[in-house]
Write a structure and sequence with these properties.
Blueprint: E1 2-4, E2 9-11, H1 19-26, E3 32-33, H2 38-41, H3 45-58, E4 65-70, H4 73-83, H5 101-109, H6 121-125, E5 136-139, H7 143-154, H8 176-185, H9 187-196
Parallel strand pairs: 2-4, 4-5
Antiparallel strand pairs: 1-2, 1-3
Helix pairs in contact: 5-8
Length: 198
């Protein structure tokens, strides 16, 4: 997460949504950079609202706008699968070496067992009641619009470089029945992606 107190803008780092590239480029012009541990870097909206907002408001910083990217749910899951196939992850508990994408989807739908133990993108952008709290959400495939908005708000051109990219692979087939199960499981994600995201 990046927070510009001067410009009153908080950029949330949704996992697998170019967060490393965005952090690298915009961190030099923001007052606060939450990074290091993935749990810190990928601070979600609920943590922001319950802990960071009261702290910042106690210091006189109010009215901070929140923005983030949101990826098509199955594409988001595939990016995690590809990322966990990289050589550096092969000996880790979340490695997907030898796991097909369909198997990964099955594991995710059936309870997020390793190596598919992932946090819900919907919960990343919602409060404790399940209501979307982020002020502006862009679809990941509209990243240029997102970047144009952030550049405008920060008053400075920036060109994020590609970082932390998942290994390239052809699109992975998913059987229709499993795709339907995934869509039902990720119904809230699809609602946000299709109805909320710009």
């Amino acid at each position: 997460m990046l927070i510009s107190l001067e410009k009153k803008l908080a950029i949330f780092a949704m996992p697998k949504c170019a967060s490393s590239a965005i952090h690298a480029e915009f961190s030099r012009i923001n007052a606060i950079r939450l990074a290091g541990s993935p749990d810190v870097k990928h601070t979600n909206y609920m943590t922001w609202r319950l802990h960071l907002v009261p702290y910042l408001e106690s210091l006189g910083f109010t009215g901070i706008e929140t923005v983030c990217l949101f990826r098509e749910p199955l594409d988001w899951l595939e990016s995690h699968w590809r990322y966990r196939q990289r050589p550096a992850a092969r000996n880790g508990p979340n490695s997907t070496a030898g796991v097909s994408f369909e198997e990964f989807v099955e594991l995710y739908v059936d309870g997020r067992r390793r190596p598919a133990n992932l946090r819900s993108p919907a919960r990343f952008v919602t409060d404790e009641t399940g209501a979307v709290g982020i002020d502006r959400i862009w679809r990941y495939d509209h990243i240029d619009d997102f970047l144009a908005y952030v550049r405008g708000r920060l008053g400075r051109p920036a060109r994020p470089k590609t970082r932390n990219v998942s290994p390239s692979r052809p699109p992975q087939p998913v059987a229709a029945e499993l795709r339907a199960r995934f869509r039902e499981h990720a119904a809230r994600e699809y609602e946000i992606y299709e109805r909320v995201a710009l």
